[in-house]
Amino acid sequence: MKKVEFVCNLCSHENSVDEDSLGRERHGCLKCGSTGRHRETVYSFSKIRKRNARSRYEVIGLSDHAFIEKYFSELPKASYQNTYYDTEPMLDVTNPARKHHKAADLLINSDVLEHVMFPWQKALSGSFKILKPGGHLILTVPYKKNGISVEKYAHLASYEVSETGEVSGTNFNNEIVTVEDPIFHGGPGNTLEMRILSLAVILDALRECGFINIVVDDEDVSTFGIVRGDEVGVIVAQRPSFKDLFKLISH
Q1: From 57's CA, which of 80, 153, 160, 218 has a CA 20 to 30 Å away?
Q2: DSSP 3-state assignment of 242?
């Protein structure tokens, strides 16, 4: 098995590991246990910082993993708050409270989009509202590079998961429905896989919400243990600054 030597960009540990331990959800770092997705997120942020110098970053996470929470909480010249859908501090990205509007220079929306209720585009318009003008969205979501999106439960208005993992809910006519063969990501509850999105559909939705400078970071960066193979990358998008809006109006 091929060995890969890399420095974890979360904890700075020097690693030498088998290549097959560097998948998107595999804990490749031997010290902090970060996965490929965690290191991808931090790498994309480092590129944002190089392009956009700020004296300080206000960062909001949406149910971030402890690895990401620790990294951004300890980051110099940054203020970080992790938020949750169903517990304090609460933030519903599909309908953010007024206090969260224009609150963040950086919003980390990591593997949330595939779990929110239909229509999922509300999570992107909500992300836009949360960002300050000129702020950046780091978006990760399992997507198909080609093909069409698959929406599984557009008919559901609400749902519940039993202790045995069975899913039932109501449709928009308030009729009780049962969900057959549910797929969960990492356990029961709000981790129900609601959809499989295509990259083209995600990019179109970001543009429709008003995002600009949309970039897909999907290259391998072996020095940081980012070896994607056929797995997906990180999407970075920006809410236009006042200067950007002026340029758009001028043209």
Answers
A1: 218
A2: helix
Q: Are residues 48 and 237 in contact, defined by beta-carbon separation less than 8 angstroms?
A: no
Domain that holds residue 165: 153-192
131, 54: one domain = yes
Does one domain contain both 175 and 52?
no
Q: CB within 8 A of 119, min separation 6: which ones? A: 154
Q: How far is CA 197 from CA 146, 208, 249, in A?
A: 10, 16, 32
Scan for tokens 């110098």, then name that residue: 53
Q: Where are the alpha helices (DSSP H) in the chain?
A: 36-51, 66-73, 121-130, 199-209, 242-250
Q: Is 110 helix (H, G, I), strand (E, B) or coil?
A: strand
Q: Which two tokens stand for residue 48?
A: 């944002």
Mean pLDDT score of the chain: 92
Residue at token pair 């007024």 = 98
Could you tell me the pTM of the whole model? 0.93
Cα–Cα dist 66/32, whole Å:
10
